[in-house]
Design a protein that fits this description.
The complex is a heterodimer. Chain A is α+β, with helices and mostly antiparallel strands. Chain A has a single domain, classed as NADH Oxidase (3-Layer(aba) Sandwich). Chain A contains eight helices and five strands, in the order ααβααβαβαβααβ. In chain A, strands 1-2-4-3 form a four-stranded antiparallel sheet, sandwiched between helices. The radius of gyration of chain A is 17 Å and the shape is globular. Chain B is of the alpha+beta class. Chain B has eight helices and six strands; from the N terminus they run αβαβααβαβαβααβ. Chain B is 42% helix and 21% strand. Chain B has one domain: 3-Layer(aba) Sandwich (NADH Oxidase), CATH 3.40.109. Classes of the chains: A alpha+beta, B alpha+beta. Chains A and B meet through α1, α2, β1, α5 and β5 of A and α1, α2, β2, α5 and β6 of B.
Chain lengths: 180, 178
């Protein structure tokens, strides 16, 4: 491994949610590169129980905005939104499925963060609306369960400086670790 | 694409599960460094609902190994991280489990960043969660088992022979564009 451990931990530590985007488009090549990172997230027995709908179309973004009006501006300015579903036909066990989705999301966020000048946020969507999201994509709720939504785009540095929240605190290691 | 970006993306994509270990000591500083990767995982409402038991004691490893058909891996790994969901910190089941998934993914990347070390996530122990809670005298109402990450020095000879590249679905298989 050529990459230094110290650089890697820096990438992971410095990642933060980006809420302010310019309208600049990302190329399909960049979007695919990000999704590639997700592909190599942890999972068990090649289950990879996920589906990702990549949304760039303004009308579809608007429909998402109607479901979560508080995020409508973010959808609009982001180059694309990744709408993430659990593919229930590939499901193995509820806990393992959800862990695999969490790992997929983290790898996507890290992939974005590694690319200069672009950023992402995983939005805290009200899960009561998950069936409405299935409806936008004409997906059967029996087959696909909405899991989360990531917005990706070019960072609006100026607005980020003014509006961005302070970096979040993390619990120290000794607070969540015991040794045996 | 810039060089550092490519290096990082290649690093993320090159992580593989390692199931064959050489018995070689891993120092506490290294384990702390791996945990530091986990510490920075994102969680909804920043609730960080994780608890880790770091197991190196042979006796405890044997007890854990009895809870899964992959016990051989747990015993041959120098260190096992037993991961629990801290139920008192939870706010939404789906989002809390996703946070644990992110935490574990970061731990695996933390291991992958250490020269010569490898790891595998063992989920085939979850149906024995009561027994595992018993080992650590943990109240199942407070802590729920999420899995074990077994870490050791990679046995390169065996990995080249045995662990063939696992099939991953191509991106197009799980992505639609709108």
């Amino acid at each position: 491994m050529e990459v230094q451990t110290s650089n890697l931990i820096d990438v992971i530590k410095k990642r933060k949610s980006i809420r302010n985007f310019t309208f600049k488009k990302l190329t399909q090549q960049v979007i695919k590169e990000i999704l590639e990172c997700g592909r190599f997230a942890l999972e068990e027995n090649e289950a990879q129980p996920y589906r990702v709908n990549v949304v760039v179309h303004p009308t579809v973004k608007m429909m998402l905005g109607e479901i979560s009006p508080e995020y409508a501006d973010i959808y609009e300015a982001a180059s694309c939104c990744f709408v993430i579903f659990l593919d229930l036909e590939r499901s193995t066990d509820r806990i393992k499925d959800l862990l695999a989705i969490g790992a997929l999301i983290e790898n996507i966020l890290l992939g974005v963060h590694a690319i200069p000048k672009i950023g992402a946020i995983s939005l805290d969507i009200n899960m009561d609306h998950k069936d409405k999201i299935d409806e936008i994509f004409k997906l059967s709720s029996k087959r696909y369960e909405f899991m989360g939504l990531i917005c990706v785009g070019a960072i609006n540095e100026e607005l980020e400086r003014v509006r961005s929240k302070k970096t979040k605190n993390r619990r120290p290691i000794e607070e969540f670790t015991d040794w045996f | 694409m810039e060089n550092d970006t490519k290096k990082f993306l290649d690093f993320v994509k090159s992580r593989r599960s390692i199931r064959n270990f050489i018995f070689s000591k891993i120092y506490k500083d290294t384990i702390l460094e791996i945990l530091e990767f986990g510490r920075w995982a994102p969680s909804g409402m920043n609730n960080q609902p994780w608890r880790v038991h770091v197991v190196m004691h042979e006796k405890v490893k044997t007890m854990l190994a009895e809870c899964t058909k992959y016990g051989g891996i747990i015993e041959s790994a120098y260190v096992n991280l037993v991961i629990f969901l801290d139920l008192e910190k939870c706010y939404h089941r789906v989002k809390d489990l996703q946070a644990i998934g992110a935490f574990m993914q970061n731990l695996l990347l933390g291991v992958h960043a250490q020269p010569d070390l490898g790891a595998v996530w063992i989920g085939e122990i979850l149906d024995q969660s009561e027994k595992v809670n018993q080992i650590f005298k943990l109240d199942p109402k407070k802590f729920e088992l999420m899995g074990v990450i077994s870490i050791g020095e990679t046995d390169k000879a065996l990995v080249q022979k045995g662990d063939k590249e696992r099939d991953r679905r191509p991106t197009d298989d799980f992505v639609d564009w709108y």
